[in-house]
Specification:
Blueprint (H helix, E strand, L loop, with lengths): L1 H11 L7 E3 L6 H10 L2 E4 L1 H9 L8 E8 L18 E7 L3
Parallel strand pairs: 1-2
Antiparallel strand pairs: 2-4, 3-4
Length: 98
């Protein structure tokens, strides 16, 4: 996943170290809320986005673009626990700067 984050950041002139982040269900809600505020490009499952919007961890008005993509299970076996389907979906959301 880090390779995709790096490639995406490189193509739009962002830093993968300071502008982007992958959120997982293992991240504490407080950590996710802070990352939503500080980072401009977030990679997460649609489930995480829905939960974080519902729980007020992210302001939906700051999301200016979202893209969903199927993650092949063979290339990312650790993602299987994040989704109930055989092919988990990953979402990236671009946020406006604060």
């Amino acid at each position: 996943m880090q390779q995709q984050i790096g490639a995406c950041c490189h193509s739009v002139g962002l830093s993968p170290d300071t502008d982007a982040m992958m959120l997982t269900g293992e991240d504490l809600p407080e950590t996710r809320a802070e990352l939503w505020r500080r980072r401009r490009l977030i990679f997460c499952t649609p489930h995480i986005l829905r939960n974080d919007l519902t729980n007020g961890l992210v302001d939906g008005k700051r999301i200016v673009l979202q893209h969903a993509q199927s993650a092949p299970l063979a290339g990312a076996p650790q993602l299987a626990s994040c989704a109930s389907s055989a092919r988990p979906w990953w979402l990236w959301a671009a946020c406006t700067p604060r």
